């Protein structure tokens, strides 16, 4: 029934800051950006295998809060990178807020190294390096 992963939707308080983070720093490609009839901006970013849909309401939005461990929901979004250490160094040099520095992955059957940063709205973004990179 499912043909593949399509997109995940999120809300930002500042579309330009989000696009700078996700496109300029992480390398996602802007596929579409427009303003809807109600004044909300929307952008689709191609992440290679799925998209990130970002909404920016006209009145802005509050900073994201971390999800408590005992609450259902999405903890973070993860992007696969060639090198966690190199990607992390680039983000750190750009002044991105750090949550957790590069380390060995707990789920080492799938991932080799991971690191966690925050996007401009406080959403946790995981950088992940696969143990055995799949053939694209």
Tell me what the structure shows.
The chain is built from 2 helices and 8 strands; from the N terminus they run E-H-E-E-E-E-H-E-E-E. By secondary structure, the protein is an alpha/beta fold. The protein folds into 2 domains: 1-59, Roll (2,3-Dihydroxybiphenyl 1,2-Dioxygenase, domain 1), CATH 3.10.180.10; 74-136, 2,3-Dihydroxybiphenyl 1,2-Dioxygenase, domain 1. It has a 4-stranded mixed beta sheet, with helices on one face. Strands 5-8-7-6 form a 4-stranded mixed beta sheet, with helices on one face. It is globular, with a radius of gyration of 15 Å. The two termini are 22 Å apart.
What is the gist of this entry?
With 136 residues, the chain is α/β, with parallel strands linked by helices.
Q: Secondary-structure blueprint of this entry?
A:
Elements: E1 7-11, H1 15-25, E2 29-35, E3 41-46, E4 51-56, E5 77-80, H2 84-93, E6 98-104, E7 111-118, E8 124-130
Parallel strand pairs: 1-4, 5-8
Antiparallel strand pairs: 2-3, 3-4, 6-7, 7-8
CATH topology of the largest domain: 2,3-Dihydroxybiphenyl 1,2-Dioxygenase, domain 1
Q: Uncertain runs with pLDDT below 50, 5 residues or more? A: none
**Helix share, percent:** 10-25%
Task: Indicate the CATH architecture of the largest domain.
Answer: Roll
Radius of gyration: 15 Å
Average pLDDT confidence is 94
Q: How does the overall form come out from the CA principal axes?
A: globular
CATH class of the largest domain: Alpha Beta
CATH superfamily of the largest domain: 2,3-Dihydroxybiphenyl 1,2-Dioxygenase, domain 1
β-strand amount: 35-45%
- Going across the major beta sheet, what is the strand order? 1-4-3-2
Structural class, by secondary structure, is alpha/beta
Biggest pleated-sheet summary: 4 strands, mixed
Strand/helix succession:
EHEEEEHEEE
- Any idea how many domains? 2
End-to-end distance? 22 Å
Number of strands: 8
The helix tally amounts to 2
